[in-house]
User: Fold this.
Amino acid sequence: MLQRASKTAILNVLVATPVAATGQGGIDRVMAALKDELERDPRGTLATFGATRGGGSLALSPFYLAGFLAKMLALRARGELDVVHINLASNGSTHRKLIVAGLARALGVPYVLHLHGGSYPNFWKPDNSLLSRRIRRMFDGAARIVVLGETWKRFVISRAPETADRVIVIPNAAAPPTLPHVGGGERAHILFLGRISDKKGTPQLGEALNRMRDLNWRATIAGDGNVEAARAKAAEYGLADRVDLPGWVGPDRVAELIASADILVLPSFIENLPLSIIEAMASGVAVVATPVGAVPDIVRDGETGLLVPVGDVDALTAALTRLVGDPALRQRLGKAGLALHRNKLDLAPFADTMQRVWAQAAKTGRR
Assistant:
């Protein structure tokens, strides 16, 4: 879908996302928010968001990719393509984006890489394999590279040193919530948003909740993945009546859950910069997380949230117990997180910065 822009539009941007910024998954939630902001204020930009993977079966992804490539060709043929913005994660995402970047180079169109996904250091290895060389070529050819934190800037430069002057740190952002934050009421509401998996630390979260059975809380663990196994484990713990596992939920339900939450917990082993933490901060919800990826850039222990070591059930239990029993601490941390969001993680300045990056890329040209 084309965003509406004024007659003074100076940039035509094609944005590659997994499912065309429909809000499914972290990347698309960020891009959906950006899309909404550009619809409100185009900032002299005409942006098209296209799917390269699609939201259904993975077997259909070649058709979505082909459609995106055809859109690139058509826009270029009409003289309506200045920059391609490529959202990038590991595995299949990279294999698809290698093709997108290759076509952009062939068409003479500059592109911006936007790195998501916490497992990229394990995927892009520091070796001379064919895949590593192709990825390095993709990064070397980018007009600008957007990363979510300083640790990711160091990582990219370590793999592709020639990109040092083109790597820009832009944290994820979220719009101010549309729903007022009301919290969980008489029982502290503990919320997890993300894929239910070992990498996200949900087994450790389940064990921590089991150890807290005598405290006054309820929990929602929302996301796809190992949902049935998690439900079985909650029943085994005797917590089925206190832990809701609804599976994947859409943006409207996410907003409702955050508005009713007192604590957002994300005990991940691997992350980049989770949008769920930023959304929680935007609502003034206290955060408990692990210091992985760029999380420590925004969650400062004891100031804007609580950090616990990766995989440490004792520390996770202690942090959650502390917050469940101390509403004043929850309020203080939530207030500090809210201030950080308003100052650094709000959507409007994020869109402004992204538009400047696109303008710089267009001016610099392809490599």
Observations:
- Residues 327-345 form the longest helix (19 residues).
- Residues 1-7 have pLDDT under 50 and may be disordered.
- The longest strand covers residues 11-17.
- The two ends are 28 Å apart (CA to CA).
